[in-house]
Design brief:
Strand content: 5-15%
CATH superfamily of the largest domain: Tex N-terminal region-like
Mean pLDDT: 91
Largest sheet: 5 strands, mixed
Number of strands: 8
CATH topology of the largest domain: Tex N-terminal region-like
Structural class: alpha/beta
Number of helices: 25
Number of domains: 4
Strand order of the largest sheet: 6-5-4-7-8
Shape: elongated
Length: 541
């Protein structure tokens, strides 16, 4: 990481240069955020995970910016248009938008109205008009007539096309329009006329005729409108008042009231309508999407954290019920450690309605396996199942809980589930997952792709890479916050311990299976692939 970027990060996040440099170095060595926060406090000055994560996000941003700079510089140099001043501005740039503005005039273009006019030899005419001196534009244009330029009107139009492109690529003009969008942009949506009466479109009826300031639009609303647009029901726009924008551009770019200035004024209006407005709108559409994604991912991550850190029931014998109608309710019994003991299927609901038989089966299983708590999934038939269970007299105290079953079906068909229960059906695996979530939410939920747990909105609309990265960090953070029992933790749980790879986690499980539980911290060093750095990752027994 170059010094200028480290200094910028330190200033932006109110940290010392030493803290930023230490985090950069540790991250490059492969250290995770929880590992840095927990075991390298002396290097970071006791920064927490949030502060460290912010530094790493900035590092990623500037790493990508540096790569983009290399492409920009090479392209401009290959075109023979690089100057010392431009090179310095690019080198000093710390903002991606500013970099793209610097690059825009030199960016290879497809054929545009301006390039066509330049090919006709009209660039000198555009240059002299753009100076807005006391020339007569028509007389000047007459000098450029040729086989390609038939009359004065065509020459002037070509000159305006060239000037419009110059204006749209002008850094000052673009920043001015950006400022207006930031202050005044309105987001609006309308339904396509052909979809007005479409049944599927009705879920977006609140956005059939909608308009509000972009700055006040919450993330869920932006994502909802974008989804409606993606599905072909809505048209979304982000815009400002055209007349105000054009007048502001004229105020900045017009130098006189000469006939030449009138040609420039016409080019300004064309530049805004045809080039600037669509370009800046695209920027703000992307920026609003990025902001909405960040907020949605933040909410998803926080909900996931709360779910993972839910208090475990503790070591109790569990009955788990996966409710259902036609296919019945799947019932499993687990011991205090979550080991699968027994499976049965009951049919208390329609169409069989065998409530008495189901109640009797549950009562017998509770007595036979000394069940202390019953958990049932919150999906189909959950209310009816709860009513059935709570109506049974067990002759002792048996706690009853509703369990969030989101993702249980994903787990039941996963490679992890097949590895754990190769001889059981997917329905059995799903019920076991529900019971284990009650026993120890964190240990069970780490086996499931966090996106499948179902605690976020619009999860399929946000940036999937950023979502996965954020949720993985939450899981890793929670595991390291709570800690694990090295003698009972699964391979999938151990993999999230700071400093432990999947190979080391697998070796730990295989070692204890072969030799019994670990009796001391030093005994961990006997595991294959165990290195010195792993020793600092494991708390004392």
């Amino acid at each position: 990481m170059e010094l200028k970027y480290s200094q910028h990060i330190a200033a932006a996040l109110s940290l010392s240069l030493k803290q930023v440099s230490s985090i950069c170095d540790l991250h490059q060595e492969g250290a995770t955020i929880p590992f840095i926060a927990r075991y390298r406090k002396e290097a970071t000055g006791n920064l927490d995970e949030v502060a460290i994560g912010n530094v790493i996000e900035q590092v990623k941003y500037f790493t990508e910016l540096e790569k983009r700079k290399e492409t920009v510089i090479k392209t401009i140099e290959d075109a023979g248009k690089m100057s010392p001043e431009l090179k310095k501005r690019i080198d000093d740039c710390v903002n991606a938008t500013e970099l793209e503005d610097l690059y825009l005039p030199f960016k290879p273009k497809r054929k545009t109205k301006a390039t066509v006019a330049i090919e006709k030899g009209l660039e000198p005419l555009a240059t002299v008009i753009f100076e807005q001196g006391s020339i007569n534009p028509e007389e000047e244009a007459a000098r450029f007539l040729s086989e390609q330029v038939k009359d004065v009107a065509e020459a002037l139009q070509g000159a305006r096309d060239i000037m419009a492109e110059w204006i749209s690529e002008n850094e000052q003009a673009r920043n001015l329009v950006r400022k207006l969008f930031t202050r005044d942009a309105m987001v609006s949506s309308r339904v396509l006329n052909t979809k007005m009466n479409d049944e599927e479109a009705q879920k977006y009826r609140d956005y059939f005729e909608f308009k509000e300031p972009l700055a006040q639009s919450p993330s869920h609303r932006i994502l909802a409108i974008r989804r409606g647009e993606k599905e072909g029901f809505l048209i979304m726009t982000i815009n400002i008042e055209k007349e105000m924008a054009v007048e502001e551009l004229k105020r900045v770019l017009l130098k006189s009231a000469t006939p030449a200035a009138k040609q420039v004024a016409a080019a300004i209006e064309d530049a805004y309508n045809r080039l600037l407005q669509p370009s800046i709108e695209t920027e703000f559409r992307m920026a609003s999407k990025t902001k909405a994604d960040e907020e949605a991912i933040r909410v998803f991550a926080e909900n996931l954290r709360q779910l993972l850190l839910a208090s475990p029931l503790g070591q109790k014998r569990i009955m788990a019920i996966d409710p259902g109608y036609r296919t019945g309710c799947k019932v499993v019994c687990l011991d205090e450690l979550g080991t699968f003991i027994k499976y049965n299927t009951i049919f208390p609901h329609a169409p069989k309605n065998d409530k008495l038989g189901a109640a009797q089966t549950i009562k017998e299983l509770v007595a036979t396996f000394s069940i202390e708590a019953i958990g049932f999934g919150n999906g189909t038939a959950s209310k009816e199942t709860e009513e059935l269970v709570r109506g049974i007299d067990f002759g002792k105290s048996v706690s009853v809980f509703m369990v969030n079953e989101s993702g249980a079906s994903i787990y039941s068909a996963s490679e992890v589930a097949r590895e754990e229960f190769p001889d059981e059906d997917v329905t059995v695996r799903g019920a076991i997952s529900i019971g284990r979530r009650l026993l120890d939410p964190l240990s069970e939920l780490v086996k499931i792709d966090a996106k499948s747990i179902g605690v976020g909105q619009y999860q399929h609309d946000v940036n999937q890479n950023k979502l996965k990265e954020s949720l993985d960090q939450v899981v890793e953070s929670c595991v390291n916050y709570v800690g694990v029992d090295v003698n009972t933790a699964s391979k999938h749980l151990l993999m999230y311990v700071s400093g432990l790879s999947s190979t080391v986690a697998k070796n730990i499980v295989e070692y204890r299976t072969k030799n019994g539980g670990f009796k001391s911290r030093d005994e961990l060093k006997k595991c294959p692939c165990w290195g010195q750095k792993h020793s600092s990752s494991v708390p004392a027994f």
